[in-house]
Amino acid sequence: MSAPNPTAERDVILKTVGITKRFGAVVALRGIDMELHRGEVLGLVGDNGAGKSTFVKILTGYHPPDSGKIYLEGKEVAFNSVSDARRRGIETVYQDLALIPQLTVAQNLFLNRELTSLGKIGWLSNRKMRRLAREYLQGIKVNVPDIDAEAESLSGGQRQAIAVARATRQNAKILLLDEPLAAMGARESALIVDLVKDLAQNRGMSMIVIDHNYAHLFELCDRVNIIQQGRVAYDRSVNDTSLEDLTELMISEYRRQLLEGQSQLDK
Fold first, then answer.
1. How far apart (Å, rounded) are the C-alpha atoms in residues 132 and 106?
2. How far apart are CA 88 and CA 98, in angstroms?
3. CATH of 6-266, one of 3.40.50.300, 3.40.50.720, 1.10.10.10, 3.30.1490.190
4. Is the predicted pLDDT of residue 120 greater than 80, yes or no?
5. Could you give the CA distance from residue 168 to residue 200 in angstroms, rounded to a whole number?
6. Per-residue CA distances from 212 to 97, 106, 181, 182, 208 (Å)
7. CA–CA separation, 241 vs 245, rounded Å?
8. Distances (CA, A) of 123 to 76, 100, 115, 127
9. Are strands 75-77 and 67-72 parallel, antiparallel or unpaired?
10. Residue ranges in the chain assigned as alpha helix (H)
11. Closest by alpha carbon to 253, among 85, 61, 48?
12. What is the CA radius of gyration of the chain?
């Protein structure tokens, strides 16, 4: 047996051990063990009802686990709320993006975190927010036609990029992305793929991508976890698996559920 690698252990930014969750008679999670490394993009997939959404809500502070432990940068933590998880550096970009269509790029970037001339009171520092927004977007290589353009005038890829930029601007350590390439064309998808790779490789951002499209995982991710029956049933590098492997695993699980359902009907 090879000796443990302390360097690899230090590189783990998020770790869960034995996370369980029950809703009445329904057991959603049966012991989730997961590791996310610094600068890694982890794909998380699973059929409806497998426990994927519940696990994500626990990571973001929406649900507390019934049992198990969460470690952030090697220290055990317990998230009391979504705001608490955010304060500790975990941000989420949901599929609906939560951008205000009629607000400008700069205004959306500072939404609920506006700068004022006198701290929490006083006049909005619009000029400063516009300057900082422009500098930050340039720094992460996000190009928009105009910092004063309304969000509704942007393409789907540009809006997704603004939502990601807003989440990462506050020094987030871990970013959860919900279907980031949904309903996008090739050019827009390429913009988001490039942004995700730049954030991970050049800025050390750790990300979890939740997606139903397995092909997207091979574009975005370094590693894939499949959740089945409330547990991580598959953990592989994208270089050590294939689209066919993932598809076959999910089909096998679907067949198992059908047989299980039929068995219950026969009783």
1. 8
2. 21
3. 3.40.50.300
4. no
5. 11
6. 17, 31, 10, 9, 13
7. 6
8. 41, 21, 9, 11
9. antiparallel
10. 6-10, 52-59, 82-87, 105-109, 126-139, 156-168, 186-203, 214-220, 243-266
11. 48
12. 20
Q: What is the pTM of this model?
A: 0.85
Please say whether the beta carbons of 39 and 197 come within 8 A: no
Per-residue pLDDT at 170 exceeds 80: no
Whats the size of the chain, residue-wise?
Answer: 267
* pLDDT tens profile 210-231: 988 888 899 999 999 999 889 9
Which sequence spans correspond to the domains of the chain?
A: 6-266
Q: Which helix (H) or strand (E) holds 36?
A: strand 26-37
Distance CA 44, CA 181 (A): 14
The residue whose two tokens read 């790779």 is: 197
pLDDT (tens digit, 9 = 90+) per residue, 219-266?
Answer: 999 999 999 889 999 999 999 999 898 888 878 776 776 676 656 555
State the Cα–Cα distance between residues 59 and 53, nearest whole angstrom: 10
Going by DSSP bridges, is the β-strand pair 231-237/223-228 parallel, antiparallel, or unpaired? antiparallel
Q: How many CB atoms lie within 10 A of CB 13?
A: 21
Mean pLDDT of the chain: 87
Q: Which tokens is 260 given?
A: 């299980």
Helix (H, G, I), strand (E, B) or coil at 30: strand
Side chain identity at residue 28, one-letter code: A
* Burial status of residue 21 (CB atoms within 10 A of its CB: 0-12, 13-18, 19 or more): buried
Instruction: Give residue 47's pLDDT.
Output: 81
